[in-house]
C-alpha cells in the first residue's frame, strides 16, 4: 500500500516510510560496516532506490521490511567490496585502522560493549549479517532467509555460529574476554 | 546449571543489544535523501567538476579539484556529490575523518 503510493510519487507516503525505517536501517548498516558515515550512506542509498524503484516491489515475493533490508544488505556488500578494492590498491585505510578508529570514537563506552563490537567486526560477513538482521531489525528466521536469499536452516546455523563465537568470549560474570579489552 | 545458562543467555542478549545501539540523526539523514532526490538546479560547481572525472581518482587530483572549487567559491554541500567522490576527497586529505571537520559539508542542502 505504502509502496504503491510511493510508486505514484506520493511524497507523504515516502516520508512515512522513511520515518518508520530510517533508524533500524541506519543502525543495521552502521553496525554491519563498522562505520557511521558508511552506514548513513547506505541508508540514504536505500531510500533513493526505494523512491525510484517502488513500482517494482512485488508484495507476493517479500514484505516491505525484507525488501528494504535486502537492498541495504546489497549496498553494504557493495561498500565492503569497494573498501577491499581500495585497501588492495592502497587508497583506503586497512580494516584494522577502521576498527581502531571506530573504537576510538566510542572510547567513552564501557569496555565490554567495545569488545562486543570488535568481536562482531571479526565475524564472517554472512554470520554478522544474519545476527544483525535478527538483533537490529527483529526479523524472524524466515524474514532473514528471504533477505539473505537463503534457507531457514542456513540462517539458523549462521546465527548459532555467530552467537557461539561471541559467547566464547563471554565469561560467566557477563564480561567479554577479548584482546586487550579484558577487565 | 540450566538456570546459570539461561541467566548468561539473557545477560549476553542484553549486552549485545546495548553494543548495537547507535545514535541516528534521522532528520539530517532524511534531509540528505530529499536533497539527493530534488537537488537545487545550480549543481554546476564542484559537483559537476567532480562528476566528470573518473573514479577512483588519485588523491592529488581530488585535492586539486577541491582546492580549485574552494578558490572560486564553489562551496556546494557534499550531499550533491556522489559518496564515492566524497570519500576520495576525504582520503585526499589523508584521513577519512577529515570530511567531518567541514561543518558545512554535514548540512543537508535542502529540506522539506
Largest sheet of chain B: none
> What shape does the CA trace of chain A take?
globular
Over the alpha carbons, how many angstroms does the gyration radius of chain B reach? 20 Å
Q: What's the β-strand tally of chain A?
A: 0
At the fourth CATH level, what is the homologous superfamily of chain A? PhyR, sigma-like (SL) domain
Number of domains of chain B: 1
| Uncertain segments of chain A | 176-183
CATH class of chain A: Mainly Alpha
**Gap between N and C termini of chain A:** 51 Å
Percent of residues in beta strands of chain A: under 5%
Largest sheet of chain A: none
* Proportion of residues in helical segments of chain B: 40-55%
Structural class, judged by helices and strands of chain B?
mainly alpha
What is the succession of H and E elements of chain A? HHHHHHHHH
Low-pLDDT segments, ≥5 res of chain B = 40-48, 75-84, 91-112
Total helix count of chain A? 9
Helix content of chain A: over 70%
The assigned CATH architecture of chain A is: Up-down Bundle
Number of helices, counting only DSSP H or I runs of 4 residues or more of chain B: 5
Give a brief outline of the structure.
The complex is a heterodimer of chains A (183) and B (112). Chain A is mostly helical and 183 residues long.
Question: Features of this protein?
Answer:
heterodimer; A: 183 residues; mainly alpha; Butyryl-CoA Dehydrogenase, subunit A, domain 3; 72% helix; disordered C terminus; B: 112 residues; 5 helices; 54% helix; elongated
Walk me through this protein's architecture.
The complex is a heterodimer of chains A (183) and B (112). Chain A has one domain: Up-down Bundle (Butyryl-CoA Dehydrogenase, subunit A, domain 3), CATH 1.20.140. Chain A is globular and about 50 Å long. With 183 residues, chain A is an all-alpha fold. Chain A is built from nine helices and no strands. Chain A has helices spanning 2-7, 11-33, 36-53, 64-89, 95-105, 111-122, 125-135, 141-148, 152-168. Chain B has one domain (2-106). Mean pLDDT of chain B is 59; it is low at 40-48, 75-84 and 91-112. Chain A binds chain B through residues 11, 15, 18-19, 22-23, 26-27, 30-31, 36-37, 39-41, 43-45, 47-48, 51, 82, 86, 89, 91-93, 101, 112-113, 116-117, 120, 132, 135-136, 163, 166-167, 170, 172, 174, 176, and chain B through 4, 8, 11-12, 15-22, 24, 26, 29-30, 32-33, 36-37, 56, 59, 83-84, 88, 91, 96-97, 99-100, 112.
